[in-house]
Amino acid sequence: MQDGTTSVSRSTRRQFLRTVGAAGLGVLGAACAGEPRSAAPVAGAPADVVRIGYVSPETGPLAAFGAADRFVVGALAEHFAANPIEVGGRPHRVEIVTRDSQSDANRAADVATGLVLADGVHLMLVSGTSDTANAVADQCEAAGVPCVATAIPWQSWIYGRGGRPDAGFAWTYLFGWGLEDVQAVYADMWDQIATNRTVGALWVNDTDGLTWGNPEAGLPAAIAQRGYTLVGPGNYVRGTRDFTPQIREFRDAGAEVLLGACGPADFTAFWRQAVEQGYRPKIATIGKGIHVPATVAEIGPSAVNLATEVGWSPNHPFTSSLTGQSAADLAAAFTAATGAAWAQPIGFAHALFEVAVAALVAAGSVEDRRGIADALAALRLDTVVGPLDFAAGPARGVATIPLVGGQWRPGQSAPYELVVVSNARHPQIPVGGAVEPLRGPVR
Description:
The chain is of the alpha/beta class. It contains 15 helices and 17 strands.
């Protein structure tokens, strides 16, 4: 694996245990030392404990996706301290054990192994793109530990781990969206701007980029069916800092639509060079790279009207099954606590714990791993990111959320804010404006 992101360990349970036995539990514990535990015991707290592991990228090139985790975990630790969960008729205090994947799949797999064997978690939660989620889920699948991931396309989750949609996995579950949802949202925005229907494809060579660009499982076939022509030089290496070949090809082809699946640092580098080299599409839809306001602020004024998929916002009409907070309440609490603008990962991180608690309560025992997994497989739950139904598909063990489209605009309380502009498939989510073109011609 050249950059640590394109391949994921798919060890069997026997290999998993043999590897850990050779390394020793002490090494695993040391590898995770110094990272915090949340929801510590308080006076009068129940004796029974449920341990939930949580892995996300707090540092590294994908850290933007984990920036809200400290707030979410801290707020829910306080909630659980005051509201122990009832499992099997007994109150349980909740201990949340967090780990940083450092934006690296190998590190993610290592800390997941430690959480399972050294910390003894009953349930694993993971977020922060497929780079982290797939690696953690593979370790849980090998160890027979229930796991829930979020906020990635199910195709990256299933195919990126060597699975099949009709079979799913025995222990690991996902709620997010599908590339069919992304394609529908993007195409709805494209169709509202007059272009020559030529699309420049900017794919990174990680699990997401390879899946998005896959001729069968990805977007190319659906794009062609809608009458758009896809151009591009193929997947680039993550961490590339000279995008001249891609920009030249898009500019020479007159690609008035830009489609991307790349990380924040990569897209920032690409977009700055595109501006310098005179490439300016009429509309740009970028997955993964511009989900959070910190990335957009770093890009600056040229980011205005960049578009992306939106899985959660303060205007989503949904409420937490745990705290009763609306999406707007949750976003406002984050801003009040941190001084930062809301970001999509807040809602997904919160919803992970909604799913975890519902599954634990339904299972009736924190020690019944199979019961927890079966509860997840059958779970139907209204959450702050929308209604989830893990039994409905589109793939086994996968629940989807309502996906809409948004563009970055100058903000009032923050330099830039993500405004919903496309809700054709989910009109219950209000729009805040119309689709607008990027300013400047393709040259």
